[in-house]
Here is the input.
Amino acid sequence: MMILVDTCVWSVALRRQEKHLTREQKQVKQELAELILEGRAQLIGPVRQELLSGIRTDAQYERLRAYLRAFRDPRLTEEDYEEAASTNNRCRAKGVTGSAIDVLICAVAMRREWAVFTTDEDFIRYARCVPVRLYTPRGRSGVNTETSR
Here is the structure.
């Protein structure tokens, strides 16, 4: 199964210095590295944009941009954006609000039957409203589970 990686996971792995990472963040970084080696890590354009935003120097920006170029964005379609709107509506009906990018991530993953790798707890709330699968790193609880609601 392919894994759609959220901004927060990429950020831990690519924008933070190793010496400043917690043990859990190091595990997240290692898991992402393994998913990349397996060819399962997926990146979408809006996440790419978030990652490249707020970079302090041109040199840092260019290094990150060059690295991310190794990942081809899946083509997003009208149906992805419509599903994102529907996801937003279903979540809001249950009292859960989300950002436009978060619900787009959910929609893209659901439509393609992928799981989402994130450390953002908002996705747990989304998963109570829509059938998005959340990816649990292999080091947690001794098993790798790709779960839905």
The domain at 3-148 is CATH 3.40.50.1010 (Rossmann fold). The CA atoms of residues 110 and 132 lie 6 Å apart.
